[in-house]
Amino acid sequence: QFRKKRLRFGRSRIHEWGLFAMEPIAADEMVIEYVGQSVRQVVADMREKRYAREGIGSSYLFRVDHDTIIDATKCGNLARFINHCCTPNCYAKVITIEAQKKIVIYSKQPIGVNEEITYDYKFPIEDTKIPCLCRTESCRGTLN
């Protein structure tokens, strides 16, 4: 039921690295699970500051629920390379398997070979804006 899709990471026109389909993917299919360490919000906050001090430019922290974050910064899989897009071809969904919450990326539409996998990060609105680089026709201009 959860057959892994063939994916590769490579240079992205959106931002540095991205994740790309190596096979056609139909709409509403599981693409990949976002894997990393499950940590509490307090730990994620401390790690984010530590990563900044260590010069790690990108941290890969994905919120599961109010107090659970998946940190894929140092021990994640290729899903961490999925870029944000204002008109994405995928979406993230939290599912529960054997009482454990997991983040799974599903396709919203058919995805062709070599097409970049994207989803909307849905960051909360904040005063300090993060510029969006997706360059789509309906780009909101910021991630938050």
UniProtKB/TrEMBL annotation:
<feature type="domain" description="Post-SET">
    <location>
        <begin position="128"/>
        <end position="144"/>
    </location>
</feature>
<keyword id="KW-0808">Transferase</keyword>
<dbReference type="Pfam" id="PF00856">
    <property type="entry name" value="SET"/>
</dbReference>
<dbReference type="InterPro" id="IPR001214">
    <property type="entry name" value="SET_dom"/>
</dbReference>
<dbReference type="GO" id="GO:0042800">
    <property type="term" value="F:histone H3K4 methyltransferase activity"/>
</dbReference>
<dbReference type="GO" id="GO:0032259">
    <property type="term" value="P:methylation"/>
</dbReference>
<feature type="domain" description="SET">
    <location>
        <begin position="5"/>
        <end position="122"/>
    </location>
</feature>
<dbReference type="InterPro" id="IPR044570">
    <property type="entry name" value="Set1-like"/>
</dbReference>
<dbReference type="GO" id="GO:0003723">
    <property type="term" value="F:RNA binding"/>
</dbReference>
<dbReference type="InterPro" id="IPR003616">
    <property type="entry name" value="Post-SET_dom"/>
</dbReference>
<keyword id="KW-0539">Nucleus</keyword>
<keyword id="KW-0489">Methyltransferase</keyword>
<keyword id="KW-0949">S-adenosyl-L-methionine</keyword>
<dbReference type="InterPro" id="IPR046341">
    <property type="entry name" value="SET_dom_sf"/>
</dbReference>
<keyword id="KW-0156">Chromatin regulator</keyword>
<keyword id="KW-0694">RNA-binding</keyword>
<dbReference type="GO" id="GO:0048188">
    <property type="term" value="C:Set1C/COMPASS complex"/>
</dbReference>
<protein>
    <submittedName>
        <fullName>SET1A methyltransferase</fullName>
    </submittedName>
</protein>
